[in-house]
Structures are given as C-alpha cells and as structure tokens.
Automatic annotation (TrEMBL):
Species name: Frankliniella occidentalis
Family annotation (InterPro entries): Fumarylacetoacetase-like_C (IPR011234), Fumarylacetoacetase_C_sf (IPR036663)
Highest taxon listed in the record's lineage: Eukaryota
Claim: Metal-binding is one of the keywords in the record: yes
Record's protein name: Oxaloacetate tautomerase FAHD1, mitochondrial
Domain Fumarylacetoacetase-like C-terminal: 23-222
Pfam families named among the record's database cross-references: FAA_hydrolase
Family: Belongs to the FAH family.
Amino acid sequence: MASHLVSRMASVHLPNFSEVGRKIVGAALNYKSLAKDLKVQHPQRPIIFLKATSSYIKVGQDIEISKSDIVNYEVELGVIIGKKCKKVTESNALDYIGGYCLALDMTNVSILSEARKASAPWDLGKGFDTACPVSKFIPKEDIKNPDDVKLWLKLNGDIKQNGNTNDMIFSTAHLISFVSQFMTLEPGDLLLTGSPSGVGPVRPNDVLECGLDDLVTMKFSVKPTD
Ligand SMILES: O=C([O-])CC(=O)C(=O)O
Ligand SMILES: [Mg+2]
C-alpha cells in the first residue's frame, strides 16, 4: 500500500469515513463459540450484511436505545480496507488491509428477530443510529496476525465476552476474499468480523468497556432515547 495512504489513514478517526460514504460490512455467526451458545450449525459460507455508515460513533458519544427494545452488544475486530479490492484470492486478501479498529456491532434484537422470522432485511436491526461504536485507528503493523488477537467486553464492570479471533469460522482473509467476489471493497470500508460468545442485552445507563489485545480499550455509555 502506498505510504501516503497509510499516513493519511493513521491520522484520521474512523467516523470521518462515514462522511465520504464508506461501507460497513458485517459477518454474522462467525465464531464457533457463539454458534455453540446459540445451538446453531456453522454457516456453510459467510453470512454478510451491511450496516449504515450513519451508525458510527466514537468515544465520547453515547449508544442510544429505546427502553422498549432489546439491543445486544457484540465486541468485534474491525478490519479497515486500505486499497480497492475486487475479486481477490484468499492468499492475497491480507494485502488489502489498511489497519484495524475495535468495534461494537450493536444489534437491535427486537427488530432483527422479527426480520429473521419474516425473511426480511436486517438493515434496521443493524444500522440504527449509534449502532457502530469504534475505537481509534490501529495501524496494520500493530497486528501481526488478525486471526489471533484477544478481544473482551465488560458490562458494568463484569466480564461478558472473552474471546480470540482464532475461534472464527471463516478467517479474516477468507471474509475479505469472499465479500470481494460480490462487492468491491474500497479504502476506508470497515469489515466487522463477527462476535465471540457472550453477546447479550444492554439497558439504559449501562456502561460497556472493551479491549483488543493490549492495543486499545474503549468505553461507551448507553442512554435512553425515550
Ligand atoms: O447479530 C447477529 O445475529 C450476528 C452477528 O452480527 C455476529 O455474530 O457477529
Ligand atoms: Mg456482529
């Protein structure tokens, strides 16, 4: 990747990417531990969804939920695409990574479970405002192997998720290659790689804290919209 791009990306915070309309692409049910928790079979191929870029928030902003909705936290490794990526092979896929972030794939379960039952789109369950809290940008060089990083989440100080990306069903390279067969990935796009076991609901005034190896931690509060 051109060095000017690396320095440009390192100097910006992820939410800026939403201003230029970059995509947020999510992988669902990508952890063996979560599939076991939910008693579901491993997917045969990645399950992919899009999240609206207007859902980005950064540290200092709050996650907003309605008191009447069930909204789950999901801690995830975020992969930030560094260069245009179309129909790449799995063996070349990691070359297209520009960096990483820690992300929360906040999910409105009330809406998503209705959508699943009706075979309807997931957009509102995944892409509501404040549904994508992100950390600062993590340079690519800081993560030697994206398929072996620890990630954890505490809810009001209690540990709820404690996983490692080595538990993913489809590797980071596989996800990038798979998505790029259908959809061109572009610099600044964010790929959410799925969440390990322990996902669960938040309530107004809860505090979520999460971390990725010894690279970054972040904290978000949950506020009611009503
Ligand atoms: O919310 C879901 O149902 C699935 C999902 O994003 C994940 O496994 O990370
Ligand atoms: Mg997720």
